[in-house]
Amino acid sequence: MMVSARERQIIHFLTTHIGKEATVKEIAAQIGVSERTIHRDLNNIEDFLKKFHLQLVKKSGFGLKIMGNASEFIQLNRSILTDSPEYTPNERLMIILSTLLDQQEPVKLLTLADDLGVTIATVSHDLDKLESYLHQLNLILIRRRGYGIELYGSEESKRKAIRKLIADRFDVPEFLKVVQEYIQKRSLDQTDVISKRLLNLIHHEKLLNIEKIVGQINERLPYPLADSSYVGLVVHLALLIERIQRGQFLKVEDELLSQLRLLKEFSFAKEVGEKLQETFQLMIPDEEIGYITMHLSGAKIRFETELGFFEENVETSIIAQQLIENVEKLANISLKQDISLFQGLKAHLQPALFRIKQNMRITNPLLLNIKKDYIELYQFVKKAVELTLPNIDVPDEEIGYLVLHFGSSINMQPLTKKLKVLIICSSGIGTSKMLAAKIKQHIPKAEIKNVSVFDLKNISLDLFDFILSTIPIEGMEREYLLVSPILIDEELEKLKSYFQVKGETFIGTHKEEEEGQAAIEYEDFKTFTIQSKLIIELLDSLDFYQMGRGESVESVLYAVSQKLFEKKMIGSINGSVDALLRREKLGGLGIPGTRLALFHARNAYVCKPVFNVIDLEAPMMIKSMDDQTIEVERILLMLAPEEKNSHVLEVLSFISSLIIQNQQSMHIFEKAYQKRLTQFITEQFAHHFSYKN
C-alpha cells in the first residue's frame, strides 16, 4: 500500500506532534489545501497506519494524533520516506537546488525534468519560485536558452546554502543518527531519497575521518561542543574538503583574519586544519582555518557547571544581568536570585552574540512549539532582548533558546529526595535544562543527568532508575520513554503513569523537608572555604592607584603593571600590558551606563589573581561594550593566571557580575574607596553563597 506525497506530508505533520492533537484546520493550513481534502486523505492514512500497529485517534473538539510506541514510529518513518512515487513541490525545490549546488557546470532543463519525473513547464515554474529564495542566500539563478541553469555566487554563500538545506531537512537528533550510521558503516537504504541527495553534497564517506578529528579536538576544548555545534562543524569540514578538492576556496578579509588569529580557538582550528591536510593530502589555506575558528568560537556551549569570568567576555555578564532585569519588569516576576539562570544565560550569550555578529544563523527545531506553548513568555523575552540589545537584530531562533532558559527558571521547584533519571536529549543547553526542570517539578526524587547520543557510549545505563529520551533510539538495551523536548500536558500524564507502573508516587508540588536553611554539605563547605580564602586574598591585595592628566591607556596600564611586577603578582610587565591591549582590540571595555571600564586578561604572565582600581584625574574616552564611546573616570583591573582554576575564575566572575547588579552596586564600584568596596564585596559573597546552598 502506497501513500501520496500529500499524505506523506500529513503523516509527517502528525508525527512531529507526537502525543499532541492537531486540528484538520491546522494541517490544511500547513500543507496548503482545503480541509475537505484533508478529510478525504485521512481514510487512506488510517488504513496505512494500521500496518505499523499505530492508531489515528480522532477526538471531537481537540483534533487528531497518532498513538503508538517509539519503535513503531521509526518503522513508519522508514516506510513513508523511501522510494516515494512522487515529490511534493517543496521536495522538488530541494532536489533542484541540491543538484545545482553539486554541479560545477550548467544543468539542462530537460535533465532536471527527467530526474524529477515531471514536465519541463513544471520545472520552469519551480525555478521561478526558487529565485526569490536564492536571493535571501545571496545567490543568483542564471537561466539561458541553449546554455542551461547554474548558480552564481560566492563560495561562502554556496556553502551556507548547503548547510541551510541540511539544517532545514534534519533536526539535530535525525542528523546525529545518520552520521552515526555512516560512521558505523551501516546501510542507509531506509534513508529517504531527498535526504540522500542532501547527504551526497557532503560526501558521507569522508565523515568517519572528520568525526574522529572533531572528537579529538572536542575532548580538549575548554568546554565540549553542543550537539548542534558538533554537527555543524562536521558538516562544515566535510564541505570544506569536498570544495577544496574541486578548487573552490573561501575568502576572508585580512582584518577579520587578524582578529581571528588572536582567539584561543585559532590554535585548535589550526590543529584541525593540519589533521585534515594529513588525512586528505591537501593544503588548507589560512582563510579556511579562520572559518573553522569562527565555528569553534560561535559554538553553542552545553557545559552545565558555572563558567569562569575569563572564559567569556565580560559583556555577556552585563547583558545577562540587564536581560534578567528587563524580563522581570515586563513579566512582573523576580528572577535575580536564580544564580543558575544568570550562569546559564552567560554560557549561552557569548557564542550567540558571536554567531549574530558573524551572521552565522542557527536552526531551532522547537521554535514553533515555543511560540505556541509559551506565548506570553516569548513576547516578554523578545521585548527584553530589544531593550537590552537595541542595536542588534537577534533572530527568532536565538530568542527561542533564551525563552527556554527563562522558562527553566520560572518552572524550577525544590526537590525532596533523589532518584536517578537519565535524559537523552540533543536539543542544546536550554532545552535539556528546561526539560529537567519540568520533570523535577513532578518527580519528588530526581537526580537528573542529561546526555547526547554521542555520550551514550560512555554511560552505564544500569546506574539509572529511569531513562527518558527526546529522540527515538534504535538498539536501546534498556526500556525508555519517548517525550518531546518541551514536556506537554499529555506527555506529563504519560510520564506519571510510567513512573507509577514502576512503583513511584507522584506529587505536583513539594514542600521543604525542614523550614529554614538546609544543612550545608561537605563539598559545599569545601567550596565556600576555598572561595572565601580567595576573596580575602584578592581584597587584601586590592590597591587604588591615582593617575594624573594626559596619560594614555597604555601608559596607565604600564605604570600599574610595574607595581604588580614589584609585588611579584605578574612575571612580565610588557606581557601583561600586551595581553590587556589585545583584549581591548577585540571589543570595547567601557561599561554602558557608568563611568567605568573593566580591563581584564588571562595569561601566562599572571602569577596571582589581581583585582585593582585605577582612578583617573581626567576622564578618558574609551570604547564601550555596546560599541559606543563613553567617558571613563575609573578603571577596574582584573588579571587571572592562564592555568585553569575553576575557583579563581568563579570568584572573579562573581565580582564582575556585582558591578552591574543594580544601580546601587554600579554606584559603589564607581565611587567607593577601599573600605566600602571591600565591605560590599564581602557582604555580597556571603549572601551569594548562603542563597546558593
Indicate the topology.
Blueprint: H1 5-15, H2 24-31, H3 35-50, E1 55-59, E2 63-67, H4 70-81, H5 89-102, H6 109-116, H7 120-136, E3 140-144, E4 148-152, H8 155-169, H9 172-183, H10 193-200, H11 207-220, H12 227-245, H13 254-261, H14 265-280, H15 286-297, H16 314-331, H17 339-357, H18 367-373, H19 375-388, H20 396-411, E5 417-424, H21 429-442, E6 445-451, E7 466-469, E8 481-482, H22 489-501, H23 522-540, E9 544-547, H24 553-566, H25 573-586, E10 596-603, E11 610-623, E12 629-641, H26 646-659, H27 663-671, H28 674-692
Parallel strand pairs: 5-6, 5-7, 7-8, 9-11, 10-12
Antiparallel strand pairs: 1-2, 3-4, 11-12
Quick tags:
693 residues; Arc Repressor Mutant, subunit A; PTS-regulatory domain, PRD
Q: Care to describe what's here?
A:
The chain is an alpha/beta fold and 693 residues long. The protein has 5 domains: 5-81, Orthogonal Bundle (Arc Repressor Mutant, subunit A), CATH 1.10.10; 89-297, PRD domain (PTS-regulatory domain, PRD, Orthogonal Bundle), CATH 1.10.1790; 309-411, PTS-regulatory domain, PRD, CATH 1.10.1790; 417-501, Rossmann fold; 522-692, 3-Layer(aba) Sandwich (Mannitol-specific EII, Chain A), CATH 3.40.930. The chain has 28 helices and 12 strands. The protein has helices spanning 5-15, 24-31, 35-50, 70-81, 89-102, 109-116, 120-136, 155-169, 172-183, 193-200, 207-220, 227-245, 254-261, 265-280, 286-297, 314-331, 339-357, 367-373, 375-388, 396-411, 429-442, 489-501, 522-540, 553-566, 573-586, 646-659, 663-671, 674-692; strands spanning 55-59, 63-67, 140-144, 148-152, 417-424, 445-451, 466-469, 481-482, 544-547, 596-603, 610-623, 629-641. A hairpin with a 5-residue loop joins strand 11 (610-623) and strand 12. Helix 16 packs across helix 26 and helix 23 (522-540) packs antiparallel against helix 28 (674-692). The longest helix has 19 residues, at 227-245. The chain is globular. The chain starts with a helix and ends with a helix. Mean pLDDT is 76; it is low at 300-312, 413-417, 427-431 and 505-519.
